[in-house]
Write a structure and sequence with these properties.
The chain has about 450 residues and is of the alpha+beta class. It is built from 15 helices and seven strands. Helix content is about 70%, strand content about 10%. Strand 4 and strand 5 form a beta hairpin. Helix 11 packs antiparallel against helix 12. It is elongated and about 110 Å long. The relative contact order is 0.06.
Amino acid sequence: MPEIKHIRPSWIIHIFALLHAAVALGCRYYGVGDELMLTLLTMTMALLICFKKHLSIEFTAAIIIVGNIIGFLMGTLGANILEMFLRSSYAVHALSTAVTTEVLGWSIVAIARLPRNASSARHSNSLSSSSLKWILLTASGIFIIRLGFVIFFSQWSIDAGSIYDMTTKVLSNSVALVVLICLNILYIRLSRGRKNRSGNLRRALWLCLFMLGATGLEVLMVSSGLPLDSSADRSLNLPVLIPISFLTQIAIYCIVYMVNYTIYTQSGMHAEREKAHTAQFRYLKLKRQVDPHFLFNSLNILDCMVCEEQNEQASEYIHKLAGLYRYMIKSEEEEIVPLRDELAFVEQYVDLLKVRFPEGFEVNIDVPEEALSMYVLPCSIQLLIENATKHNAVSIENPLKIDITVSENMVRVSNNIIPKVTKAQSMGLGQKYIRQQYLDMSGKEIEIEDDGKTYCVTLPLL
């Protein structure tokens, strides 16, 4: 397919609207049917827009099908409406087909702007040259069906007025439409569950049987007046009702399929995104476990203790350092941990920091007993304390004070701001991953407040 990335969707829509109008005028002038030419133009426009917007194969096929069915119905209904105001048949058909094309084109663009399509289509099942055979097969099927309808309507001498009246009758039976929608939802859900256990031929056979059965049910309900009317409408023209019901069923199936595919893909994308964020957060924790700066400082402190023969203090320091790493390794596979365990880990970490900062560093923990059984992300509070010591100066004259409190199912970590002479470089990855993890697991946001004097981060308790 030629490169069309520099062509705006609006140009495609306007150009094809003019082409539709020109074909409608030319065919009417020469007394030739325009149905097949308009069908080809509609499919081509839908394919170009879908290709440009990188929509998935399934969406492209469904849009081509729905677009042609809705285009056929809208063009017929629009022509009947315009005939009330315009006397020229040329103007009626040219205007109705141009307006229909504009509506269809912009509807496809609107669907392409859904958040689901922008990402899922680029990662899997995106439209490419290898998948065009399936799109062309779909387009060929639509064209054959459209040709069959043209021949059928011409043999039975069915005019646009009869199609308009029957379409109105079918669409006005809201109960029949609701029944069809429910049946299509059930069938699509069940067929998705059996997709990997059935061959393509068997699935196609079951789909054809379902389409025929659903169409027959709709014809029965509309022709017999069920369930709203007590008597059957004997004036209904079955040669018109059957194809209109068939087109309606195909349209409903494709629309339900697109909605179901959107929900299914979106949930899958959310799960994959959550896995990716979890992996990133675990990588961050693993990276911090072997942080050379922390390990270097710890070894320097131990060296000083050994040199000063502070054997008891050195042994205690080693045990706390080992407990620190033991907790990190233990929580590696845990998504959340009890607040009680996290605070015990924080106390060990603070004890190690107080060896490095014997004065000018204070951590106050004020957490009620009932909150200790709630959950937080592992290492999240410790990371906030680490950031506080990393970005603030620690001195006896102006101590760094960190407060950890709980209120309204939120744990609050705040510290006074004491700017360093040389600011530490930071990418902010720790807080970024914590924020994303909370969003993925609970849909809750962390809160960050910075008034220039106090820096505070509030984490939801889970």
